[in-house]
Amino acid sequence: MLEANRPTVQSEDGQQYLCYLKGRVRRDVGRILVGDQVEFEVTGPGEGRIDVVLPRVNQLVRPPVANVTGLWVIFSLVSPSGNLELLDRRLVMGHLMGLAQEIIFSKVDLVEGELRARLEQLLSTYRAIGYPVWPVSATMGQGLASLVSHPRRGLWVLTGESGAGKSSLLKALIPAAPVATNALSRIGRGQQTTRWVRLYALGNAWLADSPGYTALETQVSDRRRIVEAFPEFRDAACRFADCLHGQEPGCGVQEALREGRIAEWRYRHYRKLLTDWVKSY
């Protein structure tokens, strides 16, 4: 699905059809989303009519995408430098939605000097936690083969801060994709180049390129869901089963933090998310 008013449907044999919506479908479903699974009838050469929109497994509000399998979270240390809190928020949001998450560190060819050690630290930390991590350079082609060859299926949303290199990465992976890339603004921020959600075939999966960002604000009624979104906390031996890893006595996470087995920035982001996302915390 590429447009809300006249969506493009790809059939199982790979043919594409520009479709209208049957009247009751528009009334019952409302907006058709990228990623929707539908039943449709061919009405002419390259055209069709959507008769049924199948139930959605899930959907994102921003960007408006349905039936999402996972997130490709792209992060850059340079040109401009990314925000690690936003990276962790995206990972936690993916966990709360039941999505798989992979981290792409972009522009690694530009990482030099002291930043090289920082990059290695980040790669090591997130891999140890259990996330698939890919250091890549869209310009030099570094790491792209490994990224693409990793087995995955379903629909994946490419998300990250403006300027992180989403459009450049997509162009490197899918040269025929009609995407534009912009230079950085004069204050060092990325300029938005994607205006709507587009879906591209990538191996056995689909990749959705979305405008700007994925919604990062939510509300969670059970604070344990935030705890569970940090995999490095799972093996901590805490005195209390309902420990929230604050100032509780006998907290295994606090002990691991003191010993350097948990990254300080990850713990700090965890505490911030408890405050921001858990109702009445």
Q: Name the poorly predicted regions.
A: 180-195
Q: Structural class, from helix and strand content?
A: alpha/beta
Compute the average pLDDT.
87
The number of helical runs is 8
Characterize the overall form: globular
Amount of beta strand: 15-25%
Helix content: 25-40%
- Name the CATH superfamily assignment of the largest domain: P-loop containing nucleotide triphosphate hydrolases
Q: Which sequence of strands runs across the widest sheet?
A: 9-8-7-10-12-11
Count of strand segments = 12
Distance between the termini: 40 Å
- Please compute the radius of gyration using only Cα atoms: 21 Å
CATH topology label of the largest domain: Rossmann fold
- The first-level CATH class of the largest domain is given as Alpha Beta
Largest sheet: 6 strands, mixed
CATH-derived architecture of the largest domain:
3-Layer(aba) Sandwich
Topology:
Layout: E1 8-10, E2 16-21, H1 23-29, E3 38-44, E4 47-53, E5 59-60, E6 65-66, E7 70-76, H2 84-96, E8 100-106, H3 114-129, E9 133-135, H4 144-149, E10 154-160, H5 166-173, E11 198-202, E12 205-209, H6 224-228, H7 252-258, H8 264-277
